[in-house]
Amino acid sequence: MTKTKISSSSTPATASLNAEQLKERIIRHLHATLGTDINKASPQAWWRATCAAINESVFDGLRTTQREHYQQDTRAVHYFSLEYLMGRLFSNNLHNLGLYQSAKQALAELGHDIADLEDQEEDMALGNGGLGRLAACFIDSLATMNLPAVGYGIHYEHGLFQQEFQAGRQIERPDSWREYGNPWEICRPESVQEISVYGYVETVYDLQGRMKKVWHPGRIIKGVPWDIPVVGYHGSSVNVLRLWESRASDFFNWDVFNSGGYVDASRENIEAETISKVLYPNDETEAGKELRLIQQYFFCSCSLKDIIRRYKRAHGDDWSKFPEQVVIQLNDTHPAVAIPELMRILVDRADMHWDEAWGICQQVFAYTNHTLLPEALESWSVRMFEKVLPRHLEIIYEINRRFLLEQVDVRWPGDNDKKRKLSIIEEGHEPMVRMGHLSVVGSFRVNGVAEVHSKLVQSDLFPEMVALWPEKFTNVTNGVTPRRWLKACNPRLSSMLDRLIGSDWPTDLKQLSKLAAHADDPKVQDDFMAIKQQNKADLAKVIQDLTGVAVDPAAIFDIQIKRLHEYKRQHLNLLHILALYRRILQNPDYDMVPRVFIFGAKAAPGYKLAKEIIYAINKVAEKINHDKRVKDRIKVVFMPNYRVTLAEKMIPAADVSEQISTAGKEASGTGNMKLALNGAITVGTLDGANIEIAEEVGEDNIAIFGLTVDEVKALRQSGYHSRDYYHNNPEIKAILDWLETDYFTPGKPGELAAIKHSLLEGGDPYLVLADFEGYQAAQQQIDGWYRDKAGWAKKAMMNTACVGKFTSDRSIQDYVDRVWQLTPCKVD
Ligand code: C3B
């Protein structure tokens, strides 16, 4: 396989654009596109005019890239994902085009601070968390590496809800990211697709007496594509993220109308426009709702038809080259319905024999598993599936029948237990379609997202599938784009790196290892820590603005940012804060380095305990922040509305990175990588990619604690009794009892009791109490380390220096080598 080389030293085509030329463009757009004037333009208009100016370069790249891909008839990867957590695109596009400095200067000369204009943009939050952000990093790397790729997804009208706190409780507000339009997207009416749902299947026979299935849909829906150009870094490629918006079709369905059911059927069915209305806000819990299945099918069907249209333009009705040209990556099981959809198109529409069609499918799809949490493993009731997609259910039955007969029964003859376990249809009171099983059976490759996770996918989730197809399974450890997560978000550190180790690191992140040679140099240490200090001062202002809490940049900034989930154990962090607070109250001279504990997290609106944890952190914060006896040794802040844009301000300012999930539960994590990259020291369990981060940075530069995956399993097997920890550890007992009093919620005892109950009566499903002792010891280690200024600086620098592995360019290269077999296509 040819190694994808990124020519990092090559200057971008647009680099020649200077501030003067940009100014001219911006003013031209202010006049011609915005219809306003320099004297009266609002910041919003200035921002839009600048976007339009940037887009001239973006669209140039887009046109050339598409022409080149078409002319060279390139093999391409099609990334199918229900989520893309893009954040803002303004500074990202400027950086990737190499225009950031020119734009900054141009705007300054026009009397505007580029940072103020950046704030005009709403986050594009079409995702929940890690899975959606990973998709965004991957399409950045794909474009940067000149790899032909299209991202496919849904053009949600409302992205992830906006979070507010009212008296400490999470309130959700709708996100309207494109209320006034979005300058980065292009509507493509010429590529509209129509898709079908509901209805019934009829069996007919043709003149030769061959049986055929005819699906008479109950509803036709229009899919309107919106293209978001994805600009590669200093590369020449501009790829496309194509997002589908649903609309009612003008097509009138006479079949259903004539059968007299139209009015009634449409009333109980989902209206076309609602399909792309809103992103489901559940992270790692399966929704099981009809609308969700329709969302999945809607974007898969539109995207497949789009791919086939493009393929046919070059190859007509000759399907033989399809698997050479097309690979489709399923981002989790959410798009798994694409497998029976492609079968339907090939068998029912293209009249292909089953075996031939199945042969094609099995060469086209690859599946990434992102979680082992049982509540996240998707399954759909057969009943609902039949209602929404009657023909697809038949196809799944046939895939399953052949799989059980030709694979399972051949390997384990007569073993009905094996059949029950491996069947795509789970039998029972309410039979279910298992989307994970379908994905494995229908894909040529299956990967987990970190070494340990991929091992567990094989040993715990699909061991029999591994026995059937060992070569199918592989690992691709996640990564993050260093363009957004270092270059753009941490300009001070970026310039220092450019000076010290050269400017190739954004596309060759292993270059960061050169920093290690300077890790003992007191001058470099001082520079590195001065930058951290300035970033912390910046964040302190943001904290003051958003929460009203004053924090001291000299304190340790200890950051936990991720979705709120019991397995991520924000409540373990809270228990430790309470322990410190209690020690201070018991011993006024308690000696600790002052620390600011900073949280950012959204809870799924229906996840009660997660919301109780947010409330508890906010109430504890309120008490501690106002308690004079604490003497500012502890501050606690919960940042409202955590999102990509806030992450970009928090990550460069972190001293400590909290990665404290129960071992075996966090598939990989990617926040862990971003924080280490920016010189934060991880307090973490041996879970997900933490294990690989520890291998890279070395044990001196990370604070590892807690049960391992094997120890967790052993403890569960021998019987875990959280109450033992409560009774045997007086500190744990005192803290949990404290939460039941009205100390933090005056006049309202018991308001914070939910956490205690889940840990005791609830059995502590994520072993918080078992890991408490180890966690507080790791935190003491951090406290000790921080007192040694030079020692800490070295550790922080070693984190930045040693995490080059975790660039998403490396992940993408792994996918290219292990899964996609793609060749880069250089674009002039
Ligand atoms: C997440 C996992 O929880 C993370 O460990 C992982 O780093 C990312 O995916 C990316 O692989 N994940 C998620 O955000 N949503 C899901 N439904 C499943 C996993």
Automatic annotation (TrEMBL):
Its cofactor is pyridoxal 5'-phosphate. Pfam families: Phosphorylase (PF00343). GO terms for molecular function: 1,4-alpha-oligoglucan phosphorylase activity. InterPro entries: Glycg_phsphrylas, Glyco_trans_35, Pyridoxal_P_attach_site. It catalyses: [(1->4)-alpha-D-glucosyl](n) + phosphate = [(1->4)-alpha-D-glucosyl](n-1) + alpha-D-glucose 1-phosphate. Belongs to the glycogen phosphorylase family. Phosphorylase is an important allosteric enzyme in carbohydrate metabolism. Enzymes from different sources differ in their regulatory mechanisms and in their natural substrates. However, all known phosphorylases share catalytic and structural properties. Allosteric enzyme that catalyzes the rate-limiting step in glycogen catabolism, the phosphorolytic cleavage of glycogen to produce glucose-1-phosphate, and plays a central role in maintaining cellular and organismal glucose homeostasis. This is Alpha-1,4 glucan phosphorylase. It comes from Alkalimonas delamerensis. The lineage of its organism: Bacteria, Pseudomonadati, Pseudomonadota, Gammaproteobacteria, Alkalimonas.
